[in-house]
Amino acid sequence: MNKPTIDIQKEVNPHFKSVWTTKKPYNILRGGRNSFKSSVIVLMLVFMMMKLIRKGEKANVVVIRKVGTSLRDSVFLKIQWALRKFGFSVGKTGDFKDSVAPLKLTHKSTGSTFYFYGQDDFQKLKSNDIGNIIGVWYEEAAEFANAEEFDQTNTTFMRQKHPLVDMVRFFWSYNPPRNPYSWINEWSDSMVGEDNYLVHDSSYKNDELGFVTEQMLQDIERIKNNDYDYYRYLYLGEPVGLGTNVYNMSLFKPLEQLPDDDRVIALFYSMDTGHSVSATSCGCYGLTARGKVIRLNGYYYSPAGQVNKKAPSDLSKDIFQFIMATSTQAPYTGARIRNRTIDSAEGALRNQYLKDHGQHWNPVNKLKKVDMVDYVHDLLAQGRFYYLVNPLPTNLPNCDSNDIFIEEHKKYQWIEKTQNTDNPQVVKEDDHTCDDFQYFCVSNARDLRLKV
């Protein structure tokens, strides 16, 4: 270990002093994007462990996210960042050895370890007898289903407290959902004033140390100008509510033609399926070199009023022809098809397509409707979404128009009686292009530079 050169007052904004000095066991940090609440927590956890390492003691910390696949690219790297801040080296020859299977960071001399778990593997989490625990961190706590999921694990960790500490410290960090009736908003509000709980709010405006760069501020200002309510939710951490209409249609920007100075570099296809009852919608989306996202074309077939309805074999043929026709058009030459996404509840058409054409469609990882919609809001608020008013013609039936896409989004609404609940729902009529758009945004969030 190198001698630590960290000056906490230069790494932790004064706004977080109460988090750093509190003696309370339960700490809920909620706030907007770029508030640096997670950075404060990781520095705190490393500091807590370091004090015991210096005494030659073994001390353990548990870090949990709802979905285990998110761990490696988020909290695992964040803890390594904090370790290096305190002068520790990480790697095969470092002070801390990093392990991927299982995911952990272990201090070579004392055996002190950061353990990383997904709540989706709860049985393994519950059965692991770690011992010597000093801290537990629930990152992106809003991803969890309810507070009971915390209760199930907290008791397990409390029983494994390190003998030299007074308590196991628990931390929660999250961006408040825009729905004020979300369970976690109501839960954290109910903890305000409780003796053992610190509930702390923050936003990028609390930065006094210059962590928010000029480039970040420009992005924030752009979203603020495009969609003020979304800015309040995303960057101020305010649960602004849902409203009746799901989307602000002024953020769907029409294009009469493809831009001359910006080429499409990747293509994406996203499909919501029906068969005998509801419509099948397949959107063709393009990502440009400058980061624009364009709805290029769409296939839309409704069986309503049809005597002879299309079977999966018919739809398989239609969709294949649609993809072949759109992906080979001259303006998209060189643009690789990066992903094909389909409704995860659809099995028949997915299997039929694989049998007919030897190509896989990737099922979307469905979230709560309000969370799926939020990915679309993120894209819209950045001012980067466009649609072709007149798609390049394929001359195929059920194609070459984005009119239904726009009309369905105009009518897309929340069910009013569900708005004041933890799980608001949309009106499930004429929403198939809305679903294919959500699947596209959720499944390709990293490529589209959306929240992940």
Describe the structure.
There is one protein chain. The protein has helices spanning 8-11, 17-21, 37-53, 75-85, 122-127, 148-158, 183-191, 214-226, 228-236, 312-327, 348-357, 369-381, 403-411, 432-443, and strands at 26-31, 60-65, 96-99, 104-107, 113-118, 133-139, 169-174, 197-202, 253-255, 264-272, 280-288, 293-301, 336-342, 362-363, 385-388. It is elongated. The protein contains 14 helices and 15 strands. The chain folds into 2 domains: 8-214, 3-Layer(aba) Sandwich (Rossmann fold), CATH 3.40.50.300; 249-443, Nucleotidyltransferase, domain 5. A hairpin with a 5-residue loop joins strand 4 (104-107) and strand 5 (113-118). The strands form 2 sheets. An 8-stranded mixed sheet has the order 3-4-5-2-6-7-1-8, with helices on both faces. Helix 3 (37-53) packs across helix 4 (75-85), helix 8 (214-226) crosses helix 9 and helix 10 packs across helix 11. Helices cover 32% and strands 19% of the residues. The protein is α/β, with parallel strands linked by helices. The mean pLDDT is 92.
What is the compact description of this entry?
Residues 24-238 form the Phage terminase large subunit N-terminal domain. The chain has 452 residues and is of the alpha/beta class.
Key attributes of the depicted protein:
Rossmann fold; Nucleotidyltransferase, domain 5; 452 residues; Terminase; 8-stranded mixed β-sheet; alpha/beta; Viral_DNA_packaging_terminase; 2 domains; P-loop_NTPase; Terminase_L_N; 7-stranded mixed β-sheet
